[in-house]
Amino acid sequence: MYRVASRIRKALGDAPLTEVWFAFDDLQAWSGRLQGQPLASVETLGKALLLKFPDGTTIYTHNQLYGRWMFSTPDRRPDTGRQLRLALSTSKKSALLYSASEIDVLAPGRLDEHPFIKRAGLDILSSGADWPQVAEWISHPGFARRSLGHLLLDQSFLAGVGNYLRSEILFRAGLAPACRIGGLGDQAVEHLADAACEMMRRSARTGGITNDPERAERLKAAGWKRRDYRHYVFGRDGQACFDCDGPVEKTVVAGRRLYWCSRCQAG
Prior knowledge:
- By secondary structure, this protein is an alpha+beta fold.
- The protein has 2 domains: 2-119, Alpha-Beta Barrel (N-terminal domain of MutM-like DNA repair proteins), CATH 3.20.190; 124-260, Helicase, Ruva Protein, domain 3 (Orthogonal Bundle).
- The chain is built from 10 helices and 10 strands.
- The protein has helices spanning 2-12, 30-34, 115-119, 124-127, 131-138, 148-151, 163-173, 186-206, 213-221, 226-229; strands spanning 19-22, 41-45, 48-52, 58-62, 68-72, 84-89, 94-98, 102-106, 249-253, 256-260.
């Protein structure tokens, strides 16, 4: 979502919006108020997108599993079978949200009242937090008793961590999914915070590649498929760990598949 926010900012810039269109009847009254304004900012909070206007109004969107942003010129629409939910256009470019079911408009001063906003945790990418700040956040006593395999999918912990990032963060931190924050020493907490920063920023920068950048380039040049060089462990069950040559294992935690190396993640 962080990369999508950058694309929206680039597409629409600071030009006044010539079109603000909502598919949902209860939101259509906002179109006239917002049309003619430019976007003041496009921010992320985990997997939510916050489109902010100069008058303090915010359009909140969450793609869930199916939503997708597409871009075009204002005089045409992408050739897709998806249903258009939100259209934002300037005289030169359109940013179009398809298939998303969760779109809200929040009046000035009401942003913090939204249920998702109220419970969202620290967003490493949008906040710019460094690892000491992340370490301080994850050391909060409220997180202490929960296993990392469950906790990393909770958006009130680290907003924006999805399923593949959970496996990759744990691998880089050298921690098993059953570990609990309260059972970690200071150094392990620091490693976890640093791994979360590294993996989230690398994924945003590379479009989802979390493996060591030099290794990924080398394997790509050797003819490896993207799915095989993209991650350290995620999706690689039965294959050799890049670091120790032991087998990558697959399990299910919190109803989602999780991949790990029991040799490298013995901490």
